[in-house]
């Protein structure tokens, strides 16, 4: 489990002050630097509490996980585990994590020959926009996520790649105009609703192109995946696959996906 808790800062003129070139670290990447331990009643960081929660889930079905007894600790922590085996190790609210586990359960796919699994998460804010004469400010957060399954030789037997492309829109006065209560769908969840097919030279949606890229990665190592020959199609597509087996199926730029897959392979256990 991991969480990308991304903040994009603006000044009084609605110019982005966050470093747009920097990768935003997830809670697991931050480790002790997340800084939750100072507010923790049990003296444990987020990554330590999540590790305890992950271990508790082992051997359980999704219904058993959903059936976890919880209690309200305060207004910000309405679903804290209320079972003896977690009392001293998990004081965070867990409803969102349980919902994500249920979704992962529903989306699970067979990975024959798998010996390890890994998770990769990378977040970037480079597409965020400053306020300008004809442009309203936007905080754009692109979170790449990948689950990989590897065989005994460290080669991919299955991967699931997705992107949450989140845009928070503001008016000229800096007031949020996006619906803050709405869940933002990922590219895989949007499917045809993402709307890339109309701009595609091969008439394929993002999820179709990603399925082809996932298929291409099967049987390959991290070095082979990151070593894919690419070409620059235009200023927005600087790393498009340039190999015959992907020419007619993948015209999206893939460097972000290569990077997050490599991270997932590195994290495999």
Q: How would you describe this structure in keywords?
A:
two-stranded antiparallel sheet, 269 residues, 4-stranded antiparallel beta sheet, globular, alpha+beta, 8 helices
Topology:
Layout: E1 23-24, H1 27-30, H2 46-57, H3 62-66, E2 70-71, E3 80-81, H4 95-106, E4 116-124, E5 138-150, E6 156-169, H5 187-190, H6 206-217, H7 222-226, E7 230-231, E8 240-241, H8 255-267
Antiparallel strand pairs: 1-4, 2-3, 4-5, 5-6, 7-8
Entry summary:
With 269 residues, the chain is an alpha+beta fold.
Characterization of the model:
- This protein is an alpha+beta fold and 269 residues long.
- The protein has eight helices and eight strands.
- Strands 1-4-5-6 form a four-stranded antiparallel sheet, with helices on one face. The chain has a two-stranded antiparallel ribbon with strand order 2-3. The chain has a two-stranded antiparallel sheet with strand order 7-8.
- β7 (230-231) and β8 (240-241) form a beta hairpin.
- It is globular, with a radius of gyration of 20 Å.
